[in-house]
Amino acid sequence: MKSARTVLSLAAGLSAMPAIGHALDLPGVQHATGLLRVDYASSDPRSAACFLYSNQRTAVTCLHAVANAAHVTVTFDSGVTNATVKTILKRYDLALLELAAPISATPLDPAASIPDSHAHLEAVGFPANLVNATSQRASLRAIGPNTVEGFVTSPEMRQQLENQGYPALDADVLDLESHVEPGMSGGPLVDKNGMVVGICDGGLENGTTELTWAIGANRISDLLASHENLRTAGGGDAPPVLFSSKLTAQAAGEAVVVGKHTFVKIRTLALEDLINSSHEPLGLSRLATDFAVTHPETFQFDLYRDESSGATFVVPSGARPQVEGNTITLHGANGLVGIRITLTDYNSYSEAIQQGTQFLYNDLPMAPYERWFPNNRWSYLQPVNYRSGLTIQREAFYRLRSGYGRPVQTALSFLTFAGYNHLLLSAAAIRVGLTADFATGTPVDISWGKAVFAIEMLTFAEQGEVTQAPPQEPDSGF
């Protein structure tokens, strides 16, 4: 068997990271799931997952993770071995691997049938390139897209998948209610008995509202019978909608600890990706238009998540969150723009929101004759509720200084509140004075525009379908 030096060098840089996902309580699945390292001749290596199937020298994974590979290494609990692609099923983005040496683990078996919606499932893999397999709780949505095309949210995404050639847009898939992470492609989706229900494949990983799919386990028999090979695969570098993970794409794993919660940096996103997969793509597009944002394609954001609660926030890429007491803070270089984020328990959502706005009066210095006023254009009349129990409320305020002559605006604040399971995740963007430009700022600085977009992305990963549309507000301007 091959030396573990290559894989252990990766583990050395990641072993101190806080865990992403939770430890897998199914030893048989743990032992049968392997970490793929895929090297290419002309691009960055990728990581993905696979699992033993049929015998100890055969594993199933996703085609997009191994297509065009120059070399594939697989690490299981019992050792490391090389792998080659034996056959593929292009339509369903599946590949069958032949291992150079047998693995001392029992291959997994398929479930007898697809479970009912909301039955407890586990998506298993290696999120953020961790060396130990972890799992994410998952279930099947009762109502949702049942083909890959149902997940396509933009012409660009459609073009990416069509150029790739797999999976087919009309391929039937399992719609997952789970925040499956990059690096989990090819991992097994199992039921409580460790039986394979599906193979994790892709989703809208670009954004904070996770919509993911798996290929049904019934397609593995088609893969075993297939005569397709890699020469027929075609395609290029896997698009971000598919869930293999570039090992050198960004420095994931940076952590911010606040009380009992640990927020781990998961990935870096473009503003366009955030808008396309947010709760309110139209509202965010309007925000960009009304504030005359120039070159929004240059805006990049880092996504942080607390795995224990699913609480998720984003910050301008390169900004370094600081912890001050129970609050996460970020400050622009000019001192005029800032972001503050808190995660607290609550009994009454409405009372928690009222308390969440008090920092405007208690923590921000105010001159005589200054007062905060609500801005209805960017505020909800009432919270927006999702079927999963997630509640989102947005509010905006401006501060005026009265006295002699015309009142002068001295500060602005946008706030977002996400409530889930009696936890309130709050974020505020604050601008003091009138000299902070909305659209400019150095790549690692916090401009007003980046701050506002960042706090609008607040969410919990376990979000669901909206039950009440965001209310339309009358125009009032600033």
Give the strand content: 25-35%
Rounded to the nearest angstrom, the distance between the terminal CA atoms is: 67 Å
Shape: elongated
Helix content: 10-25%
- Radius of gyration equals 24 Å
Main beta sheet, described? Answer: 8 strands, antiparallel
Mean pLDDT: 77
Count of runs of 4 or more consecutive helical residues = 10
Structural class of the secondary elements? alpha+beta
Model regions low in confidence, pLDDT < 50 over at least 5 residues = 1-21, 205-209, 245-253, 435-445, 463-478
The overall strand count is: 27
Descriptive keywords:
disordered N terminus; eight-stranded antiparallel β-sheet; alpha+beta; seven-stranded antiparallel β-sheet; disordered C terminus; 478 residues
Fold and architecture overview:
The chain is elongated. The chain is of the alpha+beta class and 478 residues long. It has ten helices and 27 strands. 15% of the residues lie in helices and 35% in strands. Strands 19, 20, 21, 22, 23, 24, 25 and 26 form an eight-stranded antiparallel β-sheet that branches.
Task: Explain briefly what this protein structure is.
With 478 residues, the protein is of the alpha+beta class. The chain has helices spanning 5-14, 27-32, 63-66, 155-164, 220-225, 271-276, 281-290, 349-356, 359-362, 448-456, and strands at 22-23, 33-39, 46-53, 55-62, 71-76, 79-89, 94-99, 121-125, 134-138, 174-176, 188-190, 196-203, 212-216, 245-246, 255-258, 261-270, 300-306, 311-316, 322-324, 327-331, 337-345, 370-374, 384-385, 391-401, 408-420, 423-432, 459-460.
